Amino acid sequence: MSTESVHTFVPVPPADRPRRVRRTARVLLVDDRDRILLFSDSDPGLPGRRWWITPGGGIDPGETDVAAAAREVEEETGARIEKAQLLGPVLSRRVIHGYTDVVIDQEDVFFACWVPAFEVSVAGHTEQELLTLTAHRWWTRAELATTDEEIWPVELLTMWADADLRRRETAAGQPPRPPVDGGSVEESTVPA
């Protein structure tokens, strides 16, 4: 379990926020009903503000990206998956997250995984996750395409379609493609 805490939850003037650097493994977790699992995340310094994210989190020292992805899925959802079930990485990017207490400069690597539908368990959440991850739900493509809710990353539907294509290519015996370069983006509650 990753023990790295990235938040203090004490608001800091924007110019004085500490900067932290980390690497994360995230997962497009799709069930057999063609729904993707997202968690409602929040910034405790801004009550009422939320956005939806994929399961995932920090990569521990010495841990591989794929091992971190499998571990994070189990910790955040209760579902045990094997590293071999993960497709990818399908996308990598640099993202800046500005929150009320910290600015996180993060290197994300995304995998995809298809699983039978299951009931999510948050029993493995850290204290920080129990505070900030306020809900979870399985989303259809149509729901994502028409929601007014904030989704991070904003290109999630495109990533999902690309992951589906990669899955078909793999099943057809084609060699894996390198991950899509997602560039550098900012996803912030308080601009960095």
Write a structural description.
- Helices cover 21% and strands 33% of the residues.
- It is α/β, with parallel strands linked by helices and 192 residues long.
- The protein has four helices and eight strands.
- It has a five-stranded mixed β-sheet with strand order 4-1-6-5-8.
- The two termini are 28 Å apart.
- A hairpin with a 4-residue loop joins β5 (87-98) and β6.
In short:
The strands form two sheets. The chain has a five-stranded mixed β-sheet with strand order 4-1-6-5-8. A three-stranded antiparallel β-sheet has the order 3-2-7.
Fold blueprint:
Layout: E1 19-31, E2 36-42, E3 50-53, E4 56-58, H1 65-77, E5 87-98, E6 103-115, H2 127-132, E7 135-139, H3 141-146, H4 156-171, E8 180-186
Parallel strand pairs: 1-6, 5-8
Antiparallel strand pairs: 1-4, 2-3, 2-7, 5-6
In which order are the strands of the major sheet placed?
Answer: 4-1-6-5-8
Query: What percent of residues are in strands?
Result: 25-35%
Q: Report the total helices.
A: 4
Helical residue percent?
Answer: 10-25%
Structural category: alpha/beta
Number of DSSP-assigned strands: 8
List the secondary-structure elements in sequence, H or E: EEEEHEEHEHHE
Largest sheet: 5 strands, mixed
Q: Mean pLDDT across all residues, rounded?
A: 95
How widely separated are the two ends?
28 Å
What's the alpha carbon Rg, rounded to whole Å? 16 Å
Query: What is the 3D shape?
Result: globular
- What is the chains' assembly state? single chain
- Uncertain runs with pLDDT below 50, 5 residues or more? none
Protein traits:
8 strands, 5-stranded mixed beta sheet, alpha/beta, globular, 192 residues, 3-stranded antiparallel beta sheet
